[in-house]
Amino acid sequence: MKIRKITEVAKDLGLTPEELFTYGDIYSKITDKSLYQKQRKGKLILTTAITPTKAGEGKTTTAIGLADGLKALNKQVIACLREPSLGPVFGVKGGGCGGGEATLYPEEDINLHFTGDLHAITAVNNLIASMIDNEAYQNSDLDVDPEQIVFPRAMDMNDRSLRRIKVAVNPKDGQIHESSFVITAASEIMAIFCLATDEEDFLNRVDDILVAYSKSGKEIQVKDLKIRNSIKRLIHYALYPNLVQTKYSTPAIVHGGPFANIAHGTNSIIATDLSLKLADYVVTEAGFGSDLGMEKYLDIVSQIGHFNPDLIVMVCSVRALKLHGGVKFEDLNTPNCEAVKIGLANLDKHLENTSYYHIPVIVAINHFSSDDDKETEVIINHLKEKNIPYSLNSSYSDGPDGAKDLASKAIKIIEHTPAKYQPIVTKEEDLFTKIETISKKIYGATSVEYSPEVFKKLSDLNQTEARNYYVCISKTPNSLSDNSKLLNVPTHTLHVKDLRIFEGAKFIVPLTGAVMTMPGLPKVPQGKDK
Fold first, then answer.
1. C-alpha–C-alpha distance, residues 253 and 166, integer Å
2. pTM of the prediction?
3. What is the pLDDT of residue 57?
4. Which value, in Å, is the radius of gyration of the alpha carbons in the chain?
């Protein structure tokens, strides 16, 4: 392990100390605005995965390992990743900085308070919530209907007891009404933070957020609260991307982190744009499998950010494929080649998903020490038959050396197989077409069913400017369907049960199931003393 001062890491990217705002010697913000005016020069590599399982696929580990592997081949590279949320850190996940030898440094700082970005986003959210409640209490000219306040509070921690609450139970403290909390990573402010192309765009989008209705039914937006300057002061430094390093001193930019099951699930557009201007190769990732994170990256983020990904890395593991093949979790260490063969259908479907976007792909087989060689051979033979590039990645245990083959093959593909990226849906299509294209092509749904209320809402929205909003479907990450218990490649109908309109983020969120915007803690949380 070679940890360097952050100013030395910055030199790899041609950055000087004057272009940074440092936090001691270990991380910094990149604050020189002139850098954002440079031309892009980098190749963009998007890391995604098969349908997640509790066996783990190692997507973040693979992204970090690949960046380390590229650096080991003397390439100028940045790993561009999301900031972890405290909720999953203390809940189920336990951290979001990779693992083993493919880890970000300083791991604990990044997993916890870091540079305060998530706190700033939370503060913006709660300033808005506080201001709208005050307008109701003061009986201002906005004439707020307390029963029609639709903007939630936020907190960066799992707490199921805050999903539905009553506010101002004592009449002296305000108008009694129902409210709720969302975890910061699921908030519209976080979505906007990562979709904004600059500070002005962030402020404009926040201004457009719908927060409440007046007693006469008029929409009330953030701009009506007249708090733009306060929001700017809260968010200003947070919008500068954070520079850290991997365990092997590869530069990494870590910035923003929306959930992919309710929002678009990747780091900020500002961070990726800057990374492409500073490095020859940029390795990023999108949350969960190709059906969620990758689809949203390519159909929303890439269109807004004008990104043209050069390569997709599809991560799979023997263990995950065995689970999709019907093996019980407690039996994963028992070799079962037949289960791997059955589970390959899931990998094939995710590879099919990449083909719709006309971007070359390589499969990274994430190696676990418990993997049986014959099981791994089943995957390799299958990919050889389909003429799909692959690499056995062992960066978790072997560091950069374990990802050199993946890095070398990635470079070769990028140099010899130009990407011809195109999204599968565009803003100009109507909302029903967008939803059904994604559902049928990406999820493999045979049909889409809408509740009567949702059907009417969508029909009405198609007659407004919201027709041109992006569609960001909220769905379980644990299945290609909307039923988390259906593994592998199920035959299914997608059920759209409700709808949310994010006027600031400019996307429609069709809700297909009980996706929690405020998760609860498990029976034995990661935050509990062991």
1. 40
2. 0.95
3. 78
4. 23
